[in-house]
Amino acid sequence: MKGIFILQLALCVFLQSFSQIIKVTNDNSDDFAFELDSSYLVYNKYNSSGATEEVYVYNVSHTLVDNSESYLCDIDGDYVLFSSFYSDERYLYIYDVNLTDYYLIDTVSQPLGSKASNYYILFPKINTETSYQHMNLYYAGMVTDLGVFNGNILESDLSDYRAVWAEKEVGVFYYDGSITESLLFEEEIPKRCMITDEVVVWVGQNTTNGSVNVYYKTDYSTRLLNPNGYANWDWVDVSGEKVVWLEDYPSGGIYLFDGINTRKIFDNILPVNSTCAIDGSHIVFGGTGVIHHYNIDNNMLTTYELGENRIANNLKISGLLIAWTENSNENREIYMADLNDLNIKSSYYLGLDQINANKLVLYPNPASTILELRGMDLNYKPYIITNISGYTVKQGKLLQNQAINIKSLTPGLYFMNIENTVLKFLKE
Questions:
Q1: Does residue 122 share a domain with residue 149?
Q2: Quick one: residue 294, left, alpha or beta (phi over 0 = left, psi -120 to 50 = alpha)?
């Protein structure tokens, strides 16, 4: 069976050497499916009939090509999970990027619903005794049957051995390592589901629109995050206990649940097909000609130039690495970039008014070696300088009429916090 796969050399492009925006694909395909993590971008190309053709691993010197139909399922570190038809059967494989080899896991009933997390693999399979599809959990050569399901799998997710999946017009189900239970309210239709080490999140459609719900695995409680229920269920994402989503009605915007409270972080109406994603403390969402980045730690919203009339769809983020698709002339292509390499259009601190120049001024800006401040009594006031990732790169106490040496800082955008006043500057 191994002979059905061909390993070909491909262009090796390292993420560390990004210069502005990288166009990953140039295939004039009408659609792609892709996954992103800190090391790799993996994607499927679809042919004109809508069937998947090949699975590509980007940023390594190999392209995984299947001469029959392949379907990308998930990526977990150095492992790519995919399925393929062979002799009228669909098989599930793990591809090891480092070893450039793949391993058969099992047969599957459908590729949708297969996920990988820390050597655990979740997948659906027909049970020979019941003749129904069952969700199964694979680990170290052993397979655990998680129970029967009767609907079509809409989505699934996996965090180590904990699993969640949504069945069309049936419900959302959670496996905690011992039992499988239903989480969804009876009056809702399931749309999305996600899981982290801390919480399970699902989106249900009620009589109005999408409701965002979080289930706490520690005390088995459930919390509705948006009582008005206007979430766009296609664009909900979770990282740890933080949940971000886009609402279409009555006024568009991006909402964040930080684990305690829900707040609106962007209240402008976003373009059609706008998306949002979160990883750790970083949230990205699209706009017309721009990509927005909100840093939860320092409460900064930075807008990057994408290009006139360009709209980033299907945004994904891992660290400060982002990827997205764009539609052009009825074709769709995949792009990647590091946020540090994009041109900044604007940046400001949410929750505070713009700094009054008569009170506090930082100059020169941009600066290469020193910064000076004026406008208020600064003597012995503490300051903290953070980078765009929220990390402290310099701190100390100000002395009247004494400049701050920034020569050792790498070029980029920084923020200086002085008694809850935040000033931004560019280091050249």
A1: yes
A2: beta
